[in-house]
Amino acid sequence: MALSFLPWMVLGCLAITHPCSAFLPTSLNFTDPDLTSLFCPDQMVGQTTDHKAITREALRREVRRFFLDVTPANASLTIPEDASLSEMFRTVYGSSASPARFIKAVNDIAWSNAMTEAGSQTKFQAAYHMDGERLVEGHTLLQGRYQQLIRTITVDRTYDFSRELLGTSLNGIQDFYSQSTWIELGRNSILEGLGLPGADIGEVAGPGDATCTDCASASGACTGNVIPTGRLSSGYYEYTAVGADDFIVPKPDGAGKCSHGGPQDASAAKAAVGGINKESTSPCFSPHHHLHQQAVDLAISASEHYIGVLRDAIGTDHFTNLLNLYQGSALSIVIDTTGSMQDEIDTVKEEAKLIVQKSHPELYIFVPYGDPEYGPVTKTSDAEEFLAVLDTVKASGGCCCMQEKFWHGLQLSLINTPDYSTIFCFTDAGANDAELMDGVLALVTAKHCKVNIIYSYNNRQDSCPDYVTSGTEELKYLATISGGLFIELEEFDAGDIDGIMQEGVDENKAGLVKRDNVKAHHEFSFPVDDSISDFDFVIFGAITKASVTDSVGTYIDLMDKDTLAVTDGVEIISHTSKLKAIKFTKPILGDWFFEADGPEYSVSVSASSTLGLLSEFAELDLTPPRPGYVVVRGQPLSNMKYYVEVTLFGYLESHVNSVTSMKFIDTAGNELSSVPYNGIVDEHFFILSEDLPVGSFYIQIEGFLESGSPFIRLYSTMAQPVECLIELVVADSVLSTTPGHSTKATFRVHNYGPKAEFQYAAIDEEKFIHDWSPHKSTISSMGFVDVEVEFKVPSSASPGTTSTITFTASSLLTEHNINTYITYYIVLDEHEDDVPPTCVSTDVPDCAGYDSEDLCSAKSWLVEATLQDDDSGLLQIYSQPDGDLTLDGFSTGTTHPVTATFNGSCCLRAMNIVGVDVRGNLGYCRYDLGPLKGSVVEIVAEAVGESWVYLRWNISDVRDDLDRYSILIDEDYSDTSRCPNLVCYKNVTYLESCMLHTFTLTAHYKSVDGVVTTGAPKKTDATTSGPAPLPPTNPSIDYTSDTTTSLSWTPPSNRACLDHYQVCFKMYGTTLNMCKSSSNSSIVLDGLEPCAIYHINITSVSVSGQLSEDSLLFDTNTDDAAPGAPRNLRVNNQTEYMVSLAWDNPRDRASCVDKWRISYLKHEVKYQEVKLVADNFATVSDLEACSEYTFFVSAVSPGGFQGGTKTTKAMMEEIEPTAVTSVKATALNASSVEVVWVPAIKEECVHHYLVCVTHLTSLVQECHNDTDLQRTFTGLEACVDYEVTVTPVSPSSVLGSLTYDIARTVDFRPSPPTSLQVTDITSSTAHITFSPPLEHPLCVVEYDFEVQEMKSIKSIKVISPSVYLQETLSGLNACTDHEVRISAVTPSGLESEKANVNFTTSEDTPSAPRALTHITVTVDQIELHWFAPLTNRLCVDMYKVSWTSGSDSGNTDYTPSGYPPEVKMTVSGLETCTSYTFTVVPVTPLGDEGSSVTYTVSTSC
Description:
Helix content: 10-25%
Low-confidence stretches: 1-21
Distance between the termini: 148 Å
Largest sheet: 6 strands, mixed
Radius of gyration: 50 Å
Number of helices: 14
Strand content: 35-45%
Strand order of the largest sheet: 3-2-1-4-5-6
Mean pLDDT: 86
Number of strands: 82
């Protein structure tokens, strides 16, 4: 294995990386002003043929040979030498057969070829393009790629990838002839071994070998500069291009090396001066332009040879599938096989059997899926094998949740289903693998497959919490973007879909009209043109009315099934409540009108037609090494112009006269864009679009057939413009390896929309993808991110296994901003094998005595050969031509000898047994019996005259029984010849001049016994000469339009030899001369430049090609028309109030420009007109500073037709923004302030306003940018003064002068004060402290206090309000429990709840008890009574009571209950009739005694 020789452009393993050049990748409009400096179209002689055209022609030739070699059912098949691709296809399969898939396969190969020149970094790499003396390296690349090409076809049948590889290889093979000195060294045949295993390209120039001499100039045409005795070489190319620096191969100084040459090649100025490229017929671009056609011819022949070798290696079946060379379609079915689907599975089995019986599809694809299993895929062309697999399917299983592995199943089906096929998906549930959805949707679009969803309702409701799921809405979206149907059937019925499935596997239809998700009434008309043989209406959804009216007014009710069934020319495909599919088999030409009504439905109209449409989006890349169109991979970008490649296949058979417009139509039928077109019509051409709209659309082409009938064609694959694109960084990517190894690839995601987070996903069916990083990232606007994908190939992987890589980037900001890059990964062989299989045979066919045409069929011959390949093993063995070949011991990949036995008739004179090994190497056993005896080898016209043709024929040998030759002339009369020689001549005379005459030569044999036999006839033809016709006379200009003129003339008098007229025309003021031919005396010249004078030169041409000596000369002019849009509109200068604009002339219809209309848009449109001037500029003044203006410039023709418009924008320079007139701030409530402002009467440079609110206490500020004239600030604090400012801001953020106002927020009831504490307590004072409320503290203006003695309800003391957070209480009673209550009060009197705290004053000495007396007196006791002390009463804990008399005394402590204001106490045990003095002393709890009081009283006697 040699990784450095991996050869294909989509694989990144490129060790040979040098800059390159080649044929032009695509066709170009050389009169485009952007290209004239490169190609000097006025100096071009002849047609320039590009890579795509060379590729198509080579494929056309080999396909023609293939069709003729593979004997069709119609053995008399003849295909004209010059038949187009679509003509060949229809010649073989019938005029109604659609070649869409075949044409798409050819287009894919051609675009792959072109993208090698214009795409990614492969355009810079010399070995890819045989440039810079990298011929051996290029040959090695081709050899490696050939074997991988064989592998992709024969191992995995990945034909999409195979087409890419084939296109890339054909590019290198073709470049060999345009870039090398092969032609200059006198070689006029191809290098047959180029790019094939085991071959070499011979001796090439070494570093010291001079190969070129100086041209007269570094630029322009050059001849004779290649040293004729030198060795094979190629030119160096030095240029400047982004990304090319690392690949440039500098031209060696002083070594006499050749350069590429041309205006972009800096090396052309170094010795040897000049260049050798043969890429074009322009002497400006291609110094060897005179050899361009020779290079093209060899490139076509070499490509044809390479394709032929490939065809030999892969065999008929693979070649058929590679190019989609079959008539029918594929039957592709994807079905959910979980337990609830048994009825559906049974129905699918029945339906599949019916389709096999009726339609005989070319290919069958079947993919089952469930959960967690999916697959395997069945892909076969054998109907019995397909049905046998289908019969084994049973409903079972299903795990985890209701949804299944739908997207895995569809992915497998897409990879294995041919492009432009219809896939039928049967399910009753959603999917639990929706992480694959975006990538699979991209595959659907890339392969242009319709997906029909047959959905049968299931009422299961379980969910899938651990899975990424999708449901019916996603299935409907899939059907819509693919152009398919979502058919929801409450009860599954095969009859409902029988016709739809049948249609799906029939011919590919041309799209006419498509409407999706229509609501309520809708109508449209469409033309039925000459090329349409039948068309279908398919209406799906709930409709209440549907009808169509043909071009003669016949009304047909599409709802009336019974009437439709008996209507001539109408065939019902399906007719249910929700699905109506109706075919019109005998449509009347002209406009048809359709209308319908209903809640929601979809409509499509498609036709069987000889005219079909394909399209691609492309960009014109003018950078070195050469200009060309680059096809868009994935979805295009919105708001961008693209060149749309239009492929009108069948345009010749359909007699297309003109294409008039390209339109973008949305799903509702609205016209989003319309671009007029009046250029040439060919099978392929480009139309420059307007900026692509945002949102999905279809491409519609409109025009006219030669009959005058209008036509429309709709490309049914939906375009979905996005704001991101993906590229594969080839230099950092390796998309191949051997089993057991790992590689990485880098995908670059560009974001052309706003800054957004993107999610990335990479999938492939072989599960080679191990991981990628990052999984998500944020990409700034106009930025990019590189995502690295890691691949791990298991050791068990088979070489040649290919996996389709789908990398998807999805914006998480914008729905449907999703793009995808699809490429391929291939498993390589670990060792090389370029040795062909051996084929050994000693047998010599024996046909002695049976070697003449009349006897050969009576005997057959038998040969035996032994084939073996002991390296890679044999892949296949077959005979050329196909015949009775039997094999003994053969199995695919065998390295053992295989015996091949061939049995053939003696009429078969040459046969090859071909052995192909697994790598595509070919081994042959060749058998040649020589020509049949006496057979005519060839017959030709040696010379012609006005009335004679001199014939020559050769025969293989002269038979003894030759009697004579008969020559049948013009299928009318015969002449004879009895020439006995191997070479015979016959001059056939008395022929009409200037006519094509046919000659059929037959040999007649007569045996000795008189038996007459004849040989096989041989034919030739020749045209007799005659006098040159005179020129036509009397020119007439019958009709003119802006792009067309109809001319007629009188034929010459001697018209006997007239075959046709050559009509040449040249626009006044140019040197480019164009010619057409006409077989009658009139012609319509189209594709002309409007508003122009044309010089007409009409010459008569004889049947032998002689031109009349003179010509008919006259002038005609085209009509006035709207000019094209100006180019390169730009702002040259601008100030605060003025803009200076400049622009270039239009690319189209520049001659129609009379004056310019300039308008601009701000709030209203203003027009100014400027006369046409050489400098194309205008100054627009009196504008407003800081304003953005859109300027519109369009050309106006002399007749007043306004052309296309170009726009540009300019932001005027700034001045200081104007301050507002006034600001008013108003408090709405306690937490919000509204501010409104009045702008200046004339505002300038105000982009927005900076509106700020400032808390005037804390100075905290909050600001917002506003474009309105008011703002409400919320979440503010209550009771706060706020300053509100409004400042104008310019577009560049310059601030103007501010204007302000102040508002105070409304009162709000505060919460209670906090942290209430009592300190410094004395007997009569206490100090109170507290904190502000937690809520709305700023609303507090004062605090109210209340002090209450707890044991006295009435003793509430109110203290004056305070604004301080402390207060000292005085005048309190000692030893008293107090409660202090504090509330916060707002200015408006709102009072908070009260905060409270309790405390007790300290003790103090009480005063004396008061009013000590007695209440009662007895003989031995006295009841005393007193009042508590006046002072500090509550400090009295007890009373000390003592008494004394002359003879008696005593004391006691008395503690009353509570703190009574009066006390009663009885003293007992006293003496009778004794006077006692009582003393009462109050005592505090601490023992402090107060003042005493005494009282004297006597007991009773």
